[in-house]
Amino acid sequence: MRILALVPGGIGDQILFFPTLDDLKKSYPESQIDVIVEPRSKGAYRVCKSVQDVLAYDFKDANSLADWGNLLGIMRDREYEAVISLGQRWTVGLLLWLTGIPKRVGYAGNGAIFLTNPIPLKTEQYAAQMYHDLLPGMDVVTPFPGLSINVPKADIDWAEAEQKLLGVSESGYVLIHGGSSELAQIKGIDKIYPTNYWQEIITELQQKQPNLPVVVVKGPEDGTWVNEITQLCPDVKVVMPGDIGKLAAMIAAANLMLCTDSAPMHLAVAVGTYTIALFGPTKPEKLLPKSDRVIAVKSPTGKMSDISPQDVLNKIWGGEG
Length: 321
Fold this sequence. Notes:
The chain is an alpha/beta fold. The protein has two domains: 2-138, Glycogen Phosphorylase B (Rossmann fold), CATH 3.40.50; 153-316, Glycogen Phosphorylase B (Rossmann fold, 3-Layer(aba) Sandwich), CATH 3.40.50.2000. The chain has helices at residues 11-27, 65-77, 90-99, 127-132, 153-166, 182-186, 195-208, 223-232, 244-252, 263-271, 284-287, 309-316; strands at 2-7, 32-37, 53-56, 82-85, 103-107, 117-119, 174-177, 214-217, 237-239, 256-260, 275-279, 294-298. The longest helix has 17 residues, at 11-27. The chain is elongated and about 65 Å long. The model has no long low-confidence stretch (mean pLDDT 92).
């Protein structure tokens, strides 16, 4: 069976969709599963073992009829037998109908008339569980397994070598990711925690745990934030993973992950690293599972700057903040 999944959204959305893809592959082990994702998200599939081909299409761009036509042609040429879609716009439903794919699974809503198997959308739950709800439309009924990823051995080897270079392979380390995606910044979504607050947290960590180094992640869009942190806290170490697999391997080896609502947060959940995540306007109950391995610190006002460093420190030291 050839199966296609349409998964708009960023890298975090892809990671949250991995359990659905993995259970789909387990149920149809001989199937070929392809995905269509936004160009910014292709890299996520380095840590997904269930997908064969990753095709790029910018769902959020102002697509012309020619763009839609090209996408339709690709989908028709590959002769898929089933398609599962996270897209809820009626235009996506129409596109799926025009492909002629026999089984079309998606959420009940504006485009449901074009689907063969519409599934009720239950938004008030963990997003990964909400995506997993689509599987009965593919005749797959299985409990939600939680997030997991498949980190390539080469990336684990890179991370181990990097830990030696940083001098943290024996001591362990606290890993911090405080950046935000360029798209979130363009949209004005408040996901940046003030650097002077991070300074306060890092300073207390270094005072109370002087033998546990602090490492900050510098991704492609984190340059400004990391530069400010290293000026305020010159003793922190910096790691620059080249892709999501290497980042996941560094997260997996950390004693503690401190982060904001971001793709690295989902990676931390997937690899089981103890995580404290800071939330501004977004809702932790929709983006984190119920687990004793992950703690959310939610702003009382929806603004990141209204999370006090002491609240975060209380969670680190096991108190009530």
